[in-house]
TrEMBL record, chain A:
Domain Septin-type G span(s) in chain numbering: 27-301
Residues marked Important for dimerization (site): 149
Alphabetically ordered keywords of this record: Cell cycle, Cell division, Cytoplasm, Cytoskeleton, GTP-binding, Nucleotide-binding, Phosphoprotein
Organism lineage string: Eukaryota, Metazoa, Chordata, Craniata, Vertebrata
Compositional bias of kind Polar residues: 357-372
Protein name per the record: Septin
PROSITE patterns found in the cross-reference section: G_SEPTIN
Family under the similarity heading: Belongs to the TRAFAC class TrmE-Era-EngA-EngB-Septin-like GTPase superfamily. Septin GTPase family.
Molecular function terms from GO: GTP binding
GO cellular component: centrosome; midbody
Automatic annotation (TrEMBL), chain B:
Keywords assigned: Cytoplasm, Cytoskeleton, GTP-binding, Nucleotide-binding
Superkingdom: Eukaryota
Protein encoded by which gene: SEPTIN3
Keyword GTP-binding: yes
Family to which this protein belongs: Belongs to the TRAFAC class TrmE-Era-EngA-EngB-Septin-like GTPase superfamily. Septin GTPase family.
Domain Septin-type G: 58-331
Primary localization class, coarse: cytoplasm
Function: Filament-forming cytoskeletal GTPase. May play a role in cytokinesis.
Annotated localization: Cytoplasm, Cytoskeleton
Quaternary structure and interacting proteins, as annotated: Septins polymerize into heterooligomeric protein complexes that form filaments, and can associate with cellular membranes, actin filaments and microtubules. GTPase activity is required for filament formation.
Ranges of biased composition (kind: Basic and acidic residues): 1-10
Taxonomic lineage from the root: Eukaryota, Metazoa, Chordata, Craniata, Vertebrata
Stated name of the protein: Septin
Entry keyword annotation includes Transport: no
Length: 372, 358
């Protein structure tokens, strides 16, 4: 851009990618990553290893007796990472409490709700008037941690994955993979792949590389795809392996596991595929496929006869008339929630009125009315 | 147990008058010769030898139960403990078994022999524990099984014509497998141990401990011990059953420092320094199961088999079983349990409460 046209046949739009690149560098890049799985599988350590951060410095791990009555919470942590002039605003979504209780029935519902709320927010923003600065808080990728101690996917894993696989890109990961010998790792990966197929769970498909890429790259790509689910080990500590160079790893009495050694674990593969090559694709799939699917379902249900009534009874209709009426999530339990909230609001309003009346009465001379 | 075994058993002679200080024998000593016996040596210390011979003839029962989520290496560990395939386990890793929907109890018996001593070992597996989405009360089938064994024993005991040796199917030891999360106990672990520590001897172990570094291991153990203490859970060896000071000091050390044992099990052998050892081979090193620098398997084995085996049985019989028996007799108003049990009609017994055992 800005170069003079030196050749009559050179138009100049080949410079477009550069322009896009410059614009996006200026704009920055935001990405929302969710990590899910039972506690104690090394999720936090892996996240810190991936992004070289210390996101969990202030974390307090609750004891077992506290977790007896804990419900699942959704926690968000944001961090800005800069590398080579490019700023990434990374939002990490954590699900502490998942899979911890004695009874984990439906413990994935808050997660599903959260993901859909982000979609709903985006839909609202997209349909709104001011679209210049839409904040994209949609979850672009979910790293799901599978235990290396089990024999593949557990019933809880299957239930969670089934509930979210059409709503978020899932990358399955085997945590604490240094618990496994190489043969065991292979067998476990195969078992998980078989189970995913059997249960018809759609995980994120890494796109095929172009046919004009060189053989080496294609081979590398194929190898990476075959190592899914990634068997990872995380560490933020630097150890000396046998007394020579310092590496990130875990030091045991029988040897040192090196996080970045491809013979020890798939950490490098995961980092390459997640951060270095497919960050953008994950965002695109979230937008073009998953979000569109949600949007279509929403709008379709709005077009159905019963939907208009539901929409008008919702609290959304109380918003100003200038805003476009928004579709409700066609989920039975969200409707119920909204109805319940309505009830609560109404009850609170009534109570407030009663209290106001009482105050007025007590100011006036005379007997006081009974307490509520 | 005794190591040096005297070949012969000589009767004491009382007639010699040569005084010789004779220390109290910890193991049956071979009398040097009849001539050097002390005046007053009776020979009752040879009772140990007599007991040993009887035990060798009759053999003994030991019933061990393993509880924990699937995949924590329970079967492998038991096989490693007893150096034989005593726990059912597919040899290949790709087991096609489905996780059972409810907790099942599977008891498999084997007779193993060592040094002339026969042990009838029963391993009780509990597949399905902790594997479902909703694990409420999944310990109930286990509690029920344990109590059923007490009931069986009780029924035999109250028989008029009792068997010479009542077959003992009571669970002497319950190995509870804790998942090595590195954080703390899981709520299910707490619930299980709360319910069952009063009914059976629970020995908690940290499974697949090769996934924790030394610092992580010791921190985790400390946290687990503290959590158990805070929740009033007493694992074996229970403080209240220490018989004397010697027991207490020995057990205190085990309770406060070593337990729960962080173990690794394996049924594969590898060559290390010219020796064949049981272990796990990884790209970064070989984990030797019996190497105390690597894991505490040897401590667990010594504890359960070499030092506390008899005590486990005794505590089960004298404490847990008696508690059960007292409760049953009380519930029945002092009558032995079960109708038609004795096959005869008893004269009506006044319903005075039976004095309860401590």
């Amino acid at each position: 851009m800005g170069k003079g046209i030196q050749d009559k046949e050179y138009v100049g739009f080949a410079a477009l990618p550069n322009q896009l690149h410059r614009k996006s560098v200026k704009k920055g890049f935001d990405f929302t990553l969710m990590v899910a799985g039972e506690s104690g599988l090394g999720k936090s350590t892996l996240v810190n290893s991936l992004f070289l951060t210390n996101l969990y410095a202030d974390r307090q791990l609750p004891e077992a007796s506290a977790r007896l009555t804990q419900t699942l919470t959704i926690e968000r942590r944001g961090v800005e990472i800069e590398e080579g002039g490019i700023k990434v605003k990374l939002t990490l979504v954590d699900t502490p409490g998942f899979g911890d209780s004695v009874d984990c029935s439906d413990c994935w519902l808050p997660v599903v709700r959260f993901i859909e709320e982000q979609f709903e927010q985006y839909l609202r923003d997209e349909s709104g008037l001011n679209r210049k600065n839409i904040q994209d808080s949609r979850v672009h990728c979910c790293l799901y941690f599978i235990s290396p101690f089990g024999r593949g996917l557990r019933p809880l894993d299957v239930a969670f994955l089934r509930a979210v696989h059409e709503k978020v890109n899932i990358i399955p990961v085997i945590g604490k993979a240094d618990a496994l010998m190489p043969k065991e790792t292979q067998a476990l990966k195969q078992k998980i792949r078989d189970q995913l197929k059997e249960e018809e769970i759609n995980i994120y498909q890494f796109p095929d590389c172009d046919s004009d890429e060189d053989e080496d790259f294609k081979r590398q790509d194929a190898e990476m795809k075959e190592s899914i689910p990634f068997a990872v080990v995380g560490s933020c500590e630097v150890v000396r392996d046998g007394g020579t160079r310092p590496v990130r790893g875990r030091h045991y009495s029988w040897g040192t596991v090196e996080v970045e050694n491809p013979h020890h674990c798939d950490f490098l593969n995961l980092r390459r595929m997640l951060v270095q090559t497919h960050l953008q694709d994950l965002k695109e799939v979230t937008h073009d496929l998953l979000y569109e699917g949600y949007r279509a379902r929403c709008l379709q249900s709005l077009a159905r006869p019963g939907a208009r009534d539901r929409a008008s009874r919702s609290k959304l209709s109380r918003q100003s008339a200038t805003e476009i009426p928004l579709p409700m999530l066609p989920l039975a339990d969200t409707e119920k929630l909204i109805r319940e909230k309505d009830e609560e609001l109404r009850r609170m309003q009534e109570m407030l009125e009663k209290m106001q009346a009482q105050m007025q009465q007590s100011q006036a001379p005379g007997e006081q009315s009974d307490a509520l | 147990m005794s190591k040096g075994l005297p070949e012969t058993r000589t009767d004491a002679a009382m007639s010699e008058l040569v005084p010789e200080p004779r220390p109290k024998p910890a193991v049956p000593m071979k009398p040097v010769s009849i001539n050097s016996n002390l005046l007053g040596y009776i020979g009752i210390d040879t009772i140990i030898e007599q007991m040993r011979k009887k035990t060798m003839k009759t053999g003994f029962d030991f019933n061990i139960m393993v509880v924990g989520q699937s995949g924590l290496g329970k079967s492998t560990l038991v096989n490693t403990l007893f150096k034989s395939q005593v726990s059912r386990k597919a040899s290949s890793w790709n087991r096609e078994e489905k996780i059972p929907k409810t907790v099942e109890i599977k008891a498999i018996g084997h007779v193993i022999e060592e040094g002339g001593v026969k042990m009838k070992l029963t391993v009780i597996d509990t597949p399905g524990f902790g594997d479902q989405i909703n694990n409420e009360n999944c310990w109930e089938p286990i509690e029920k099984y344990i109590n059923e064994q007490y009931e069986k024993f009780l029924k035999e005991e109250v028989n008029i014509a009792r068997k010479k040796r009542i077959p003992d199917t009571r669970v002497h030891c319950c190995l509870y497998f804790i998942s090595p999360t590195g954080h703390s106990l899981r709520p299910l672990d707490l619930e299980f141990m709360k319910h069952l520590s009063k009914v059976v001897n629970i020995v908690p172990v940290i499974a697949k401990a090769d996934t924790m570094t030394l610092e992580e291991k010791s921190e985790f153990k400390q946290r687990v011990r503290k959590e158990l203490e805070v929740n009033g859970i007493e694992f074996y060896p229970q403080k209240e059953f220490d018989e004397d000071l010697e027991d207490k000091t020995e057990n205190d050390k085990i309770r406060q420092e070593s337990m729960p044992f962080a173990v690794v099990g394996s049924d594969k052998e590898y060559q290390v320094n010219g020796k064949r050892v049981l272990g796990r081979k990884t790209p970064w090193g070989i984990i030797e199961v019996e190497n105390l620098n690597h894991c505490e398997f040897a401590l667990l084995r010594d504890f359960v088999i070499r030092t506390h085996l008899q005590d486990l049985k005794e505590v089960t019989h004298n404490i847990h079983y008696e508690t059960y028996r007292a409760k049953r007799l009380n519930d029945n108003g002092g009558l032995p349990p079960g109708e038609g049990l004795l096959g005869t009609v008893l004269p009506p017994v006044p319903a005075t409460p039976c004095p309860t055992a401590e």
